[in-house]
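Model it.
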Amino acid sequence: MKNYFFLSVFIVTAVSQFGYAQSIKDSKTLIIGQFDRPDERYAIEVALTELLSSNGLESMPSLNVLKQGSDPSVLANDSIQSMLLKNNISTYLIVNVRGYDRRFKPSKTEVSLREMLSRTSIYHIYREEVTSVSFEFTFFQKNKVVFRDILRCRNISDRDSVIKRIRKKLPKRMARKWFKS
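Modeled.
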C-alpha cells in the first residue's frame, strides 16, 4: 500500500513539473531583480536574460519595462500586466538574495505577485566577509507561485565573482530542476 502511495505522489509531481516546464516554454519571462542598488539589479537581470535565452526561452529584463529607479511593484498593476500579456509575457521570475553563509530551502508560503513585488530586499549580492550567498528564484504565472528554487554560490570574493558563479552554476541547475521535461 505504501508503494502505491509513493508511486502516485511521484507521478503527480512529475506531471505537474512537466506542465510547468511546457507553460514556461510557451511564453516570455519577465525577470525582476529585487535589489536596492540599480547596478545589482541590472547585473542579475541581464545575466539571467542571457542564460534563459541561451536555453531557448524568451526572456526580458524588467529594466526594459520600468523606468530607472521606479518601484517594481507597479508591475502588479492590471494595465501593465495586460500590456505585458499582449507581448506574450505571462511568466514573472523574481530573484532576490535569501541570505549568506547558510543552507536555505525554498519558501513554502503562498504569496501573490503584488505582495512579492512590494517587498524590499535588505541584502546585497555581495557582502564583505561572507563566503557564500544564496539566491531565491520565484516563478509566477497568473499571479500565483508556480515554482521556487534556491541557488547557492560558494567561494565568492566580490560582486563579479558572484555573477560568474551564477553564469556557471545556473545552466546546470536549470536543466536539472527548472525545465526538465
